[in-house]
Design goal:
Layout: H1 2-9, E1 18-21, H2 33-36, H3 47-59, E2 82-87, H4 93-105, E3 110-115, H5 122-125, H6 130-146
Parallel strand pairs: 1-2, 2-3
Length: 149
Amino acid sequence: MATVLKLKALKRALPGAIFMGTPWTDETKTGDTYFLNAEVDNTLGRYEGLIEDAAKLYAGAADLKDPFVSPVYGDVTGFPPTILISGTRDLLLSDTARTHRKLRAAGVTAELHVYEGQSHADYLRSFPAPEAVDALGEVAAFFNKHLKR
């Protein structure tokens, strides 16, 4: 998402469509799944510790709400069609849902798929589980539709 914001800022061509799998779009620990899914997400665990330190390291001297650090605070008008995937146990489910709503409010074609009982990136780690097969099928169908294949 930050890459697309940067491409927009540079007035470069944007991708025809994008996929955001459980995106970390807000480094500020905003959203209730940072609290509700702490320790439930068997991949990320909780924000405090490694994730919080990674946010600070990634941001460096920049404000955590800088759109190139936390892209959910950026201007998403003109974004390409976007598919987002998350799970009900994902620490970043709130980020994913907020990003989806932001894209839709800006008039961007966006689909959100949330899988029951899935933690961060389980759609990749659990392959060939039925949820993973379904999620990757949805991504392929989305790209086929929006890239005119």
